[in-house]
């Protein structure tokens, strides 16, 4: 996993740590352990996992915490076990069993038919025990206080929903279904279990959940906390950015202009803009760029301003997030400022928001910035 260092000799730079989170720890607990191992408080994560859940937790350290907001929204893949025949207060095994409706009459054909209806673009009501805020207070807190919590449905996408095994237990009264799902950000796997059970009129909940992939980062790339304690491996900032975004190699002049916060010639993404990782001639990650409609004036570099005046392009590349500034000789020209992305390493310290000790899908509140990293969490990350 990229760079490796012994903890006692650690002088960690910036990068991503791919952790195989164990059961029983909150995502916040994992962040705390990474802080100690890395010797920095500038640590955050890209999507909460429940204490019950295991698997891929992407952790950012130092300047790489600023990449997390671009990882939070990617698709995620899970393996899970759904128990049909019982409903719980949290839609998973950590909650109280509310109702038992034997699943003896449910057939494998019934299960696959209802799973087909839960695949694709669907409307999903998030799990009640979640970190979504209702009138300023988290839903799980209201639920535990005995309040009735009604959450609005939201659009999510279940790209893939496959059954691996169906087993009858407890004399055939209950059914365990092993599944794999790939879902969009904001999907609750617990809610899929709940809705599958309700569609079959027997109730359902999760008994196991393992995140096997976050975007293109897979479980095979992760390290356990014990392994990290022996040999701290992480993906360096430049390598992580190159993995996540298209790459653009800058000239020395472009690197200097970005140092002044100027726009430069468009990367070519045009009317369908996407972030591009821009690298200095020496290989250092300078910024994430995005093509925006051309803006004439002093804020643009001479080459970009010329391009904006030509008929060949209507776009310029704007520094969306600046990681390194190559300071040009002399002071900045009058009226120019440094990078205008408004970001700095200050304020990135701290862990991702977690429902520490709470049952159910541990998700950061919809659309709220993580108090530790500044990362805006999706509206109810899966798992």
UniProtKB/TrEMBL annotation:
Domain spans labelled Pseudouridine synthase II N-terminal: 35-189
CDD domains linked: PseudoU_synth_EcTruB (cd02573)
Catalytic activity, as annotated: uridine(55) in tRNA = pseudouridine(55) in tRNA
Stretches with biased composition (Low complexity): 342-368
Record-annotated tRNA pseudouridylate synthase B C-terminal domain positions: 190-230
Enzyme class per UniProt: isomerase
Active site, per annotation: 50
Molecular function per GO: RNA binding; tRNA pseudouridine(55) synthase activity
Keywords assigned by UniProt, alphabetized: Isomerase, tRNA processing
tRNA pseudouridine synthase II TruB subfamily 2 C-terminal domain location: 245-289
GO terms, biological process: mRNA pseudouridine synthesis; tRNA pseudouridine synthesis
Family: Belongs to the pseudouridine synthase TruB family. Type 1 subfamily.
Name this protein carries in UniProt: tRNA pseudouridine synthase B
Organism: Nesterenkonia sandarakina
